[in-house]
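Worked example

This section walks through a single chain of length 170. The input is the sequence exactly as stored; nothing has been trimmed or padded.
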Amino acid sequence: MQGSRSPLAVSMLTIASALVVCVAAFLPWYQTAIGPINAPDAVSGWDASLLARLAVAGAAICALCATVVALDVHEDIALHGPVRRILAGTCLAAAIIVCAAVLFRLVEPPDPAIGATRELGLALATIAAILGLYGAMAQFSRTFPEPRQHPAPRRRRTRSTDGPGVDLSR
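Given that input, the structure is written out below as tokens.
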């Protein structure tokens, strides 16, 4: 992975973003102003939606895969090239799922949340999911080997059509 620009930094960004999504799922995502008196004011993403639970599962997978890739980049473990690419691809797929789940819940709150306002946990999860997707894409793009430099083309030998012993001084 020589020639890559800071592959460890993008792995760390992906890991940190995935952990922030996991924590943000337990923070308040919605606050209701309408409802019964005994209804809770704020509800966490974990309690509000199955998509938040999917985001937590995807973020955990993303963090684990990015951790293994980071350990390989730091040379604590040695992974074969295809294994590293598979792990980076799994991390990217999980980050896409996390980002889609969080962004969907940002745009479409759960049905009973009429008049609900979005809270800090959802904003934090959204920012972390987008940063995690960026980190996973950068990590995936840096796991491929450097393109080979093609050798200079060989000069072709031209054959004389006049046969052996031709005078080339003309």
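What to look for: The two ends are 55 Å apart (CA to CA).
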